[in-house]
Amino acid sequence: MDNNRGDDIRGRAEGTAPVPLSVLDLVSVGQGRTATQALRTSVDIAQLAERRGFHRLWVAEHHSMPGVASSSPAVILAHLAAHTERLRLGSGGVMLPNHAPLVIAEQFGTLEAMAPGRIDLGLGRAPGTDGATAAALRRTDRLNEGADDFPQQLAELTRFLDDDFPDGHPYARIHAVPGPVQGPTGRPPIWLLGSSGFSARLAGVLGLPFAFAHHFSAQNTIPALDLYRESFKPSAVLDAPYALIGVSALAADEEREARRQVLTGALSMVRLRTGRPGLIPSPEEAEAYAFTPMEREFVDGWLGNVIHGTADEVRSGLDDLAKRTGADELMITANAHGGEARVRSYELIADAYGLRG
Questions:
Q1: CA 56, CA 67: separation in Å to the nearest integer?
Q2: Are 204 and 241 a contacting pair, CB within 8 Å?
């Protein structure tokens, strides 16, 4: 095994945290706020994460959703790389069926050249949006084709990143640049992302690190992690499984304030699930909203999977989750209306675990 590749993947727990802690930034846009403000908050969060000892920060690809501004992960990552020095940055993830593999190889080869040894390439097979938007992105309405071809697309992307198509292959004379054709270089480690068993099994068979979306698919977390570990075969990348899980968590100075903040994300999800996506509502709007019985049932279930409260309560919840799942890393996302609440949450969590100041 190439130990350097493994070291690029594995994190190190800081302070009293049970496992490495990382950040998933959805670049949330609240009602009355702008995308410019959301992106400035992303820089603030990245700099805080670097300063306090979080291991990595990822941004996720979403489309046609007014409440997020992360439609172009590679562009955002270049911006964050220019405002940080050590923090690992990556995609959580790029939705591979939306893009030609060569384009992704070029984008992430460029990021690796900008920030050597700091870039992760997380890949998903979902569209990251609704069917109509996916069709507009891909210029086709045959959407199942992209998901079904995911292993082949992944293999093609990997060969572009490594510049090792065999002689006689139609792409043997095509080079992703920046890349190995220009001389010895590192390349971003590939992660597979998932919310069910497909990518868990594929990551295991290929010996790749795996990231599971516990924050919106909690009922599948342990089965998917078990499947990943059972399927795992040592590779040149990893000699043992390494799995992180995305966790929705928000800490505030008072428990009531934490509840007010996470309710905004819950209402935003209600609207998204019922075909009414919009900007993330303010705490005042969320508190005043008259939920139907069906919506209230959804919200109660949703909030049951969001760790929230004071810093001590959130620390206890994260500790319990790490123990129950055996995850190697926790990637925390704080979905709230305002950037101030999200920044404060990460500060409080860092304080609770005694991360460096």
A1: 23
A2: yes
Give the single-character DSSP code of 85. S
Structural tokens at position 315: 């620390």
Name the pairing type of β-strands 307-309 and 243-251: parallel
Residue 263 has pLDDT above 90, yes or no: yes
Burial class for 103, CB neighbours closer than 10 Å (0-12, 13-18, 19+)? middle
Q: What is the mean pLDDT of residues 125-134?
A: 69
| Distant-in-sequence, close-in-space partners of 14: CB < 8 Å, separation ≥ 6 | 20, 21, 53, 54, 55, 353, 355, 356
pLDDT tens digits for range 280-308 = 999 999 999 999 999 999 999 999 999 99
Rounded-to-integer distance, Cα 38 and Cα 259, Å: 21
CA distances from 317 to 23, 75, 213, 251 (A): 16, 34, 17, 11
DSSP letter string, 90-145: EEEEEEGGGS-HHHHHHHHHHHHHHSTT-EEEEEESS-SS-HHHHHHHHT-S-HHH
**Identity at 188, one-letter amino acid code:** P
Question: b/e string for 158-181 if b means 16 or more Cβ within 10 A?
Answer: bbbbebebeeeeeeeeebbebbbe
Query: pLDDT tens across 333-356, in order?
Result: 998 999 999 999 999 999 999 998
